[in-house]
Amino acid sequence: GYQRRVHGKRIFLNLNLEMMEEDSSILTTDRIEELQGKQSTLRYGIFILVGVQSLAAYFARDNPQALQKPLIDHFELNATQYSELYTFFSLPNIIIPFFIGMLIDKWGVPFLNLSITIVLAAGQLICAFSISFESFALLLVGRTFLGIGIENISILQQYIISKHFGNFNVALFTGLNLMCCRLGNILNSAIVPRIFTLTDSLYLGFFIPAIGLVATIVVSIVLNTFEVKSEKIKAQIERGNLLSNGETEVGDRKTNSKSVSFGDLKEFNIILWLCIIIGALFYMLYFGFTNIGSNFLQEYYLIEYKTANDFLSIIYYIAAVGVPTFGLFVDKIGNRDMFFTVGTLSGLVAFFQFLALEQTTYSSAIILPLVLVALYYCSISSNIWSAIPMCADKRLQGTALGMFSILKNIGQALFPLLLGKVKAVSYTHLTLPTIYSV
Question: The whole model's pTM is what?
Answer without folding.
Answer: 0.71
